[in-house]
Amino acid sequence: QVQLVESGGGLVQAGGSLRLSCAASGGTFRGYAINWFRQAPGKEREFVSGINWSGGTTDYADSVKGRFTISRDNARSTVYLQMDSLKPEDTAVYYCAAGSYAGRYYPNDYWGQGTQVTVSS
């Protein structure tokens, strides 16, 4: 059983930056890919970014490519999502999830509770 806790959300102006963290406990963290998703009010949850167990494979949604960077520190059991050049449309609750593969097409076994990101215009 893996527990995931997101942190780092908050309120930021458009053009600003935030770094989200996804801290894992209770399982073999380095055995899992970690994916980030987000859900805005009234919208479906969407894939944002994913990273495989070693950090050697990453994936990004087109809407964040070039602005967001995912990385992981297996020694700290933590995955980071660096978000730069934020836009109001990035406003959402961001969730991290653990699964076997990085990417939007694969199921995830464990989910965090989410952290709110609000980008003001």
What does this structure look like?
- With 121 residues, this protein is mostly beta strands.
- It is 0% helix and 52% strand.
- It has no helices and 11 strands.
- Strands 2, 4, 5, 6, 9, 10 and 11 form a 7-stranded mixed beta sheet that branches.
- A hairpin with a 6-residue loop joins strand 4 and strand 5.
- The model has no long low-confidence stretch (mean pLDDT 96).
Helix/strand order: EEEEEEEEEEE
Give the N-to-C terminal Cα separation: 40 Å
- Unreliable segments of 5+ consecutive residues: none
Briefly note the structural class of the backbone. Answer: mainly beta
According to DSSP, the number of beta strands is 11
Main β-sheet description: 7 strands, mixed
Shape: globular
- Assess the beta-strand content as a share of residues: over 45%
Query: How confident is the prediction overall: mean pLDDT?
Result: 96
Q: Specify the helix fraction band.
A: under 10%
User: What is the CA-atom radius of gyration, in angstroms?
Assistant: 13 Å
**Discrete helix count:** 0
